Amino acid sequence: MAGGTGGAGGGTGGGDSLARRAWRQYLLQLQRHPLRTKMITAGCLAGVSDSVAQKLSGYQKIEKRRLLLKMIFGFAYGGPFGHFLHKVLDYIFKGKKDTKTVAKKRGLSRR
């Protein structure tokens, strides 16, 4: 996964912010261990989103069992499914990177 970190400049000097270093490390892990990184990310995002949903719904205390189940679901299903779905789509649309193909891939991955 080549690409920028979303900001200008670069370098590896000590002046980089913690967020910038963390983002670079995340992208490095995504490149080296894509499936594992996507699984962990999906699990964490599922947990955060469920925590926010519980609070916005008026729960006084976070239901830990529910939160854990959502995280496990994101880790065990969400991350791997998205990973392999996009691998299949990349295979089907091999070599095509025009905007029409990207739109088709987006449409197929949203179903």
Briefly summarize what is shown.
The chain contains 4 helices and no strands. It is mainly α and 111 residues long. It has a domain at 64-93.
Give me the number of helical elements. Answer: 4
Strand content: under 5%
**Which regions contain 5 or more consecutive residues with pLDDT less than 50?**
1-9
- Provide the gyration radius in Å: 18 Å
Q: Sum up the overall morphology in one term.
A: extended
Between the first and last Cα atoms, what is the distance in angstroms?
25 Å
Percent in helix: over 70%
Mean pLDDT: 87
Order of helices and strands: HHHH
Helix/strand/pairing category:
mainly alpha
For the secondary structure, the number of strands is 0
Q: Describe the sheet with the most strands.
A: none
What this model shows, in words?
- The protein has a domain of 30 residues.
- It is 70% helix and 0% strand.
- It contains four helices and no strands.
- It starts with 17 loop residues before the first helix and ends with a helix.
- The N terminus is likely disordered.
- Its main location: membrane.
- It is a multi-pass membrane protein.
Write the layout of secondary structure elements.
Layout: H1 18-32, H2 34-56, H3 64-92, H4 99-109
What descriptive keywords fit this protein?
111 residues; mainly alpha; disordered N terminus; Peroxisomal membrane protein PMP22; transmembrane helix; membrane
